[in-house]
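Example record

Each entry pairs one chain with its bound ligand, adenosine monophosphate.
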Amino acid sequence: MESNGYEGGLKMIEELTTNAEQIQDELLREILSRNAGTDYLRRFLHGQTDKQLFKKNVPVVTYEDLKPYIDRIANGERSDILVAESITGFFMSSGTSGGQPKLIPITAGGGTTGEIFHTLSESPVIKHFGDVNQVGKRMELMFTRPVIETPSGLRAASVTTTIYSDSGFRTILPKLYTSHVETIFCPEPEQSLYCQLLFGLIQRDEVVMLGSLFASTVLRGLKHLESHWQEMCSDIKAGQISHRITDLGCRNAAASIMKPNPQLADLIESICNCKSWEGIVRKLWPKARYVGCVCTGVMRQYTAELEFYCRGLPLVSTSYACSEATCGINLEPLCKPSDVSYTLLPNLAYFEFLPLKNDPAESIEMRSNSEDIEPVDLVHVKLGHRYELLVTTCAGLYRYKVGDVLMVTGFHNNAPQFQFVERKNVAISVDQEKTSEADLFKAVTEAKALLDPLGFILTEYTSYADTSSTPGHYVLFWELKEKEGNDCKEVDPKVMIECCSRMEESLQYTYKVYRKKNIIAALEIRVVEQGSFEALMDYYVSKGASLSQYKRPSCITSKEALKILDSRVIGKFFSPKSPV
Ligand code: AMP
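Structure tokens for the complex follow.
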């Protein structure tokens, strides 16, 4: 975006948020008048376009409900199935946080919404940090997945793959980014990552922002650098990329930018060769103004470690979006990751909200009896209340449950602002109780505080419901790291046992009652060796998840994934008593 565009972007945000109700109504009217004659909507609206009829007759649905219609499109049926406009392809969702990848239809008009969203989400960032595009390059870690062709010949690709394939993006890439197109499209994620980091080091004087879509990918990059910087330094010294990199595209890209530079290699070596990597990002990329990546939701667990590496550089979550729709932007890029709220913009999709009971201590099964409750419009949500997000889009989703739980934290003009709470239904459960992603995060946060004074960081965690014996119990996989140095001493077992107790005490009421009655057995923490969660990520990537869009599951259900973690366990600890 041009620098003079950001003020226009901010002005547009003001107008959109001031007229939120009217814009939402107009958008719905437009969607319905275009698509009332489709197979899907005809069943409920009989050709009519009235908002009240839409609310009364069109059901709230999940992906599974729409799947038969989507499959018909994918299989080549031509009639107006979900939309009157023709479908030009599909976005493939990552499927790592909540289950199987989904195919989300795209229409030609979708590209324009994407561009507007980008302009609007970048405007507050430019206001605070200046237009980085004018002064240097972005070192963004970007990855793609193979494009799949449906039987009807339509392309199905992840959102990021679709963006990076766009000819406009390819044109601006060499000027604005340190990564080369060959490295982004390299089919080997590890080789792609190595090259993107190497190219970022070579162009370190030009780098003004670093990032990736999600915090987990930035961290993965920094860890890769921590274990490969010596090899990268010798590449820079020799002006040739390591023989380990076999991908031809990557090798060609490297040949085009590398020449022997012993001075740079020595400098990077002297920076990397230190006892602690605290604040390494600012040392390696001294002109960087911020690190851009989503740090909210399931990414919250990575912020402590990212802050360690980035010390002093702001972590900026610019936007909230999914394969189904672009939704909200962060108007306060400088606020702490834990305080980030997203303002939902009324021109992006027609939004509705299923109210959820508000007491976080309540179990999910009570919260989920929300089907009888009427969804609320965007401008009618209430401060402090939690909702499940529904979207109606120009591309054929009607009252579609995205699967995210959001809480209203304020309003910008008439548009509500939301904190991302959790993925809905991603919960661990061994009996009738259910622990949500947010409950689990809270308990882990309480427990890991015990490690801080000992100089340890919890770098990753996930959970598993072990019901192989009766009663079943919660298993937490923890990967730990020392703040100083790379190897990990053992944590005092007494502290780990205390962590188990602290977690149980922090879990919700139903868990504690069941635990006291021995319906649930003692919580267990399995400490895994360093690199275990990288191996888990590799596994999901090998199964088709995009490294750009990967989200670590909050609860492991796949046997193979469990095997990966179990085979790396270096210590097991159990809660000694039931919580009070
Ligand atoms: P995908 O469709 O694979 O791109 O995944 C989209 C999902 O990622 C959303 O439904 C959210 O659960 C999560 N997500 C995306 N953006 C954010 C954000 N800013 N904060 C928290 N979670 C997010």
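Residues 93-94, 97, 159, 294, 296-297, 317, 320-323, 402, 404, 420, 423, 549 surround adenosine monophosphate (CB under 6 Å).
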